[in-house]
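Quick look at the format.
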Amino acid sequence: MANMEQKEAEKVRELIKDIDTAMLTTITEEGLVSRPMKTQEVEFDGDLWFFTKKDTNKYDEILRNPEVNVAYVDDSYLSIRGRAEIVEDLHKKKELWGIAYDKIMQTTYDDPNIVLIKINAEAAEYWETGSFTKRVAFMFKRVTGQDAESAAVNETVELDK
């Protein structure tokens, strides 16, 4: 990654590092659908990883249309747009697997039905909730019809590799 991209990835990494659950949104034939996914304990480097099974709707949806969004909520809000791909690498599955998955997935990492979803992040938008003054200034400017950009409470970062 270039320096700017590395800096942006570090910001995303900091925002998601302690969040256990993300909401993965895929595109179905009827529209958008979101579902909770367990966040992998791996440092964000521009890619997100999740486990799933081949016999799920999200697996089929990603094969049809890899455009996805992942949302995280904690003290801040983060929305990551990217492209998903299915990864069946046994070594990567073993690397990311934890004992909790034995119970969650009711199987083991070497089950041929278990696959990884790798999301190549393209952009992230985040809202930091820690700045009360910034939020008040933003809302005041919005309500009074002023340009609220100077008091924006969110920021978008491009993560293209």
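Next, a different chain entirely:
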Amino acid sequence: MTQPVSYRSVLTSRNVPQLLLAASLFRLGHAMMLFAVVLYAIAQFDSAAVAGLSGFFLTFPGFVVSPVAGAILDRFGAVRAVALDGVGSAVCIGAIGISSLSGVLTPALLFLLLALYSLTSPLTDGGIRTLFPQFVPEAAYDKANALDLSTYSVIEVAGPLAAGALFAAAGPDPTLMTIAAMYAMAGFSLALLRGGSRPAAPGGGTERHLLQAAWDGIRYLARNATLRALAVSYSVFQVAYGMLIVVVPVAVERWFADGDSAGRLAGAMWSVAGLFGGLGALLAGKMLHAGVERRYMAGATVVAALAVFPLSALGSLIALGAGLAVFGMAEGTVNVSLLSLRQRRTDPGWLGRIMTVSISVNLIGFPVGTALGGFLAGAVSLRTTFAVAAALTLVSAGCARLLIPREA
């Protein structure tokens, strides 16, 4: 019988603390950017539609190039690739601030720079998740993923709060320049990692042409029943999440506050979700083991749907905070289940490509959700927008239950 693995043993594994630090810096920059770009577009262009499209361009181009990014990870190594993303992200975000200060920023230029920022993002998204399985044994995947996601959830608490407070105190452009500096520091932090990871088993012919290797990764995902099902279920879940990213700040501004106070309050709301997301991830890490991930994922997604509607849509600040708290806790369980299932049912030699391609395919719904949320928030009532998000979340739960195979 396999000896149970504790959180402490995972935390004291070689390179795991350093990797958590680097991941936290990257994710803090991303969490601040994800929240700040909506506030930035509203402040600069006074348009919910521009805010929704900003979220779309912040993420969608990276999803398109994710197969190539995965091949780069397998070919050149995750550490180099993630460092490249840190530098590229800092340059693109800084360029937005400089363009604004120069008076030449337009919605089209904003979308272009956000798209360029997005192109290297899969390197970090897949790279971090590729490195964790190299430092811990297979039996520790659930707890390693829970620690990873719980620190990410702490970042989700700090990110919106920091972005909202900085936005209110310093203004839009200094906020973006601060985020650019955060990415630069994240890139340099990877120097703390030392040798000692287990090399991935060879697979898929990483010596082949980069585009061919990328295509091989897509074919591997398409032929793997578990990865296909996760892509369908979680991409629908992310449509709902993307809608919430836009509709929550709009709801706060329309229902409860305006101006700078709305930004701080919306940041606080998402911080509540992030805090409970961390708790949900840690609880899931203790309960999950091989064979039960599918059941936990479907059940938690149903809970998330009820948290979105009717709870979050009642029109009360307390109800909105409670709804986001329940949603965050359920999301933590969903994410640990998904990550562990994906790692267990992917051949190690394909991990770089599959992590990157799978993460991007799984998240493809997010930019669709931000665009849809921006449209619905302006065209129909906010309660209807919440209801649509909840309905999509229920569809995600059904897909998880019906499509994910019981066994590999």
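The longest helix spans residues 225-256.

See the schema section for token definitions.
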